[in-house]
Structures are given as C-alpha cells and as structure tokens.
C-alpha cells in the first residue's frame, strides 16, 4: 500500500508540471517546427496555406475514426471493424442518396442507423456473449467484408454535388470536413467531461469490477462506446463518399483500424483503458497527418514513410511509458487497485496525465 | 490458476491429464468443431480422407500451425505479436534475394534468416518488456517497419529466386506407396509439435503461463518476467521464420505472401480456447485451432463456396465458437472468488 500512497502524493505535483495532453501538443509543435525547418531548407514553406490545407484534409478522415476509437479504447475495448464499417457506409450512403440532393438527409440517417446497429451488435456480443473485443470486431469485420465482396463488385451509388461540398469546400484555410471533425472532437471532449456516461467510460476502462460495484451498468457503457465508435466510422465513410463522389468498397484495405489505434495511443490514451481523452487523440491524428505532409513535400520514399511511422509510434509510446514508470519507481509493476480507481473516480474529467502501457499486470490487463 | 492445464501435472494419470488437456478450459469447442468440419468434408468429398489428400492438407496447414504455436507462446504470456505476417513476407523476400537461385547459398542464408528472426523477436520483446510499450503497439510498429523496409530494399517487387534445396522443405517429401508423398513439412510439423509440448511441460513453460496469469505473483516467486516474455517473442519470430521457409517453398516469392497471417494465427489460437491476456489454454488446443481454420478453408473449397462470401462465414464461425467457449468456461471452472477483471470485460 505504501506505493499507492507515494504515488498519490507525488502525482499532483508532477501533474501540474506537464500533463500528457500538453506533452502530446508539445510533440505536435516539435514536429511542426522540425518539419518547417527541413521543408524550409528545401526552399518551401510548411505553413503555407496549401500545405496546411493538405495537412487538415489528411487529418479529417482519420480524425473521425480515431475519435470513435478513443471511446472504445477508454473502455478497455478496441474496434478492428472500423475500416469495413467505413467502406459499407460509403456504399450505403452513396446508393441511398442516388444523386438526388433531396435524399441527402435520408442517406445520412440510413448510414447512422446501419453503423449504429453494427456497433450495437459488437457491444452486445462483447458484453452478453463475453467474446473478446479483438475477436468480436475482427469477426465482424470479416462478416462485413464478405457482404461487401458479394454485394458490390465495384463503386456504386452517386453522391449529389451538394453533398460533395462536404469533401471539397473550405472555410478560409480550413476544409469543411476538418471543421466538422473539429466540432465532433469538441463534442467528444464535452461528452467525456460533462456527461455521466462519459465519466462512466473512464471508470469502466479503469476497472470494470470497481465500476460495477459502484453501481455503474458497465455493459451499457461498453455498448454505447461501441455504438459511438461505429457511427464515427460511418461518418468517415460518408466523407469518403463525398470525396470520391461514389461509394467504394476498397477503403477497407487502407488499414484505418490499426492507424486509428496508433493515433489514439499516440495521443496519450492508455491502451488498457481508463486514461486519456479525445483532445490527445486530435493531437495524435494531427501529428500523423503532419508527418505525412512533411514526407510528401520532402518526397520521401513511400516505403520509408512506413518505416518512419513505425519507429515514431513505438518511440512516442515508449516515452509516455518512461514518464509513467519513473514516477512509479518500483521493480514489480504495481498499481494500487483501490488507489487507481479512486483517483479516476474523483477526477475523470481531467484525464490523468501519462499515457502509457503495461502498468497493469497483464494477468488483469491483457484483455485483448 | 484454478484451471490447471494438463502440462502442469507430472506423472500420475497421464490419460486423465490428456483428457483434461483436450477438454478443459474451453478447448473442447475446438476439438468438437474440428471433428464436425472433418465429418462434413468426408461426407461432401469421401476422396479427401484418402492418405494422399490428407498429406496435401497437412502440407498446406503446416505453416499456420507453426505460426499458431509461436503466437501461443506470446499470447499465453499475456502479449500479442502482430509482426509475424510481415516477418514471413520479409523472410521469403530476403531468402529469394540472397540465395538468387544458387544451391550453395541455401544453408548460410537459412542461418542468416534464423539470426534475423531472433533479432526481430529480441527487439519486439525488449521494447515491450524494458521500455514497457504495449505489445500491440510494439509489434504493430515492427509490422510497419518490416513492411516498409523490405519494399524499400527491393524497390517494390522482390528480386532473385529460391534454390531447389530451399523449396524442398515446403513442397518436397519422401516418395512412398500408400501416401504417394510423405511431405517434409509433416516431419517439421511433428518436430515443432513435440518440441512445443515438451517446452510447455518444462520449467520455462510453466513460468511462461505463470507470468501470463499473474505477473505480480510470478515476479514475487522469483520469475524474471521480462526475460521469460522476451524469450516468448523470440520463439514466435523464429517459428514465423520457419513458417516463412515453408510458405516460400510452397507458394513462391511475393512480398504479400504473409499479409494478414498475423490475424489468422491469433484467430487460430483464440479458437483453441487460449485466453487473450494470458495464463490459460494449452499449446495442443492452439494447434487444433490452426487445423480447424485450415479445415474450414478446405471445406469452403469442397463446397465450392463463392470466394466473396467466405470471410463472412469465417467471421460468424469464429465469433460463435469463441462465444460458445466463453460460455463453457464461465460456467463450471471459475468460482465466484476468482472473478477477474478480464473475465468481465469479455476475454
């Protein structure tokens, strides 16, 4: 127990110094500065309008997916089906709209309903049938893939030009899609900090048992997080339809599920649940998008980009882990169960700093 | 710790131990499923049960079974390895580029591949244990690095060719009368199976399960958890390299050859009743899981199911089997006092 006490007294002091969200935004700033210098040497300007627009455009698609992924990861779950949900949503959206501007609301409604139903199915299988989230969402992805491959031989549907504005138009330097994404992120932050269910997500992710014993309907929280995640992926699918002007099944090969998990973790959310937040995820998404933009301007070999991204993700998470474990400073990795739960219970709105991994003994934590 | 897998029992009633190994801890589902799938295949196509086609099936299934064994070591220790798919691809491309069709280079290149596998496993393990990065992220990063590095090195498309000696492991065998061809892959597979079962009965195997079940308790009992886990990652990478040799010999040289194998291997292991999060499940059941997945693919072929619908059927079967196993597991074996958090979050 003594470790718990020291942790608790030490935490507030350090937290005031630098929270994890601040750290992630500092990292983003660092990436922008280093990138601007590198690009500047080549005689270009990273912060020019064109390059900023490019960066924001890249970020909006992953932003929606990662926003949803944040909710499920906070609940100590994860969603590997988002890529397939995106592909399905783009097709359903485009075929429902069928090029008729009057049918846009209908298309959006159908997509939200279908995506929500998929999330509901994921959540129910995880909570009621007690299937591991990894397997549930992997299986769900395969089911959707089977449906898509059977049903759609190629691009289908047509998006009315009004709706294509969602993909192309800009407000000043900010693309409309990025603006909508930012609004969704702000809504996500408010949801996690101001609503009861948002609070409960931290509690469920921190310790499902403690949360249930405290009177939280943990299953319901888990289901809601999965529904929100799938709907967010559905909105990303609509954005794809708006950009392409039609629905496309091939999006599921783009690896959005793993990218979004990487962005969430890069943003300082704890992969084992209970810590982190949407603000950090936004920074994670922006870092990945900014890196892509910089690599593009510098004309880095696309394969080298993958290598760099892999290294950046591992290095960033290692740094978060370092900060967290320095503070713990114990050989065996303890985290006082009661202490941890209490701390989160009191202050879930301000996500505890440090985002890292493996502080929970895997016997308890390796829920995937 | 309530379910003691059979390998932990010494001597005594071996038959009872074997039965417990086969039917304990949610593993019964996979054996039942395996029997059902084989029965359906036998009904649809009686010719499949002839020795030659069974041998061909084993030759096909060997790489996945070997990958599943490697993934089992990592999963039972409480981690995950997503890098095996791209490692298989990397090893095949490396072999083709370095051997370049020359028979004399076969053995040195194989040794180099072994060394490369060990290095990848060490890096995965040390980053996960010492830098405390979650293994999902570590191995995801490794997957990206290997994927990019191999394509960077070869400029997008693999070069060179494998030697005939190299390909023998994956496609060759001993000519015989009854089975026509006794594949080398069968011998390799049997060796891996025996080694894996012996390893899980050895002190290392028990330590591995203990570390996956309760890391804290294991550490207090004097286990160097980081060493045990790092060794598991090395085992996984080495076995992935072996699978790469078989796949390269069997399927030929493309960089995409390993794509998606990591998820198939994880699926196979979980189908075998091994709990993600560590500490539960037997290596025999994991191998049965791999055989079940391969049998399922064979069944799809026999039924000539349209290839587009196959993923959907596969997804339904995986979810249903794991749900059924989870129901079985939560019923008799786990007393209320042992309600662990990961049980409730749906492991």
Automatic annotation (TrEMBL), chain A:
InterPro entries: ABC_transp_permease. One of its GO terms (cellular component) is plasma membrane. The chain crosses the membrane at residues 23-41, 61-94, 106-129, 174-192, 221-241, 303-321. The keyword NADP does not apply. One of its GO terms (molecular function) is transmembrane transporter activity. Keywords: Cell membrane, Membrane, Transmembrane, Transmembrane helix. It comes from the Bacteria. Residues 332-368 are annotated as: Disordered. It is found in: Cell membrane. It is a multi-pass membrane protein. Coiled coil: none annotated. This is Monosaccharide ABC transporter membrane protein (CUT2 family).
TrEMBL record, chain B:
It is found in: Cell membrane. It is a multi-pass membrane protein. InterPro entries: ABC_transp_permease (IPR001851). CDD domains: TM_PBP1_transp_AraH_like. Pfam families: BPD_transp_2 (PF02653). Keywords: Cell inner membrane, Cell membrane, Membrane, Transmembrane, Transmembrane helix, Transport. Its main location: membrane. The chain crosses the membrane at residues 20-44, 56-76, 82-99, 106-127, 133-153, 181-200, 231-253, 265-288. GO terms for molecular function: transmembrane transporter activity. GO terms for cellular component: plasma membrane. This is Autoinducer 2 import system permease protein LsrD.
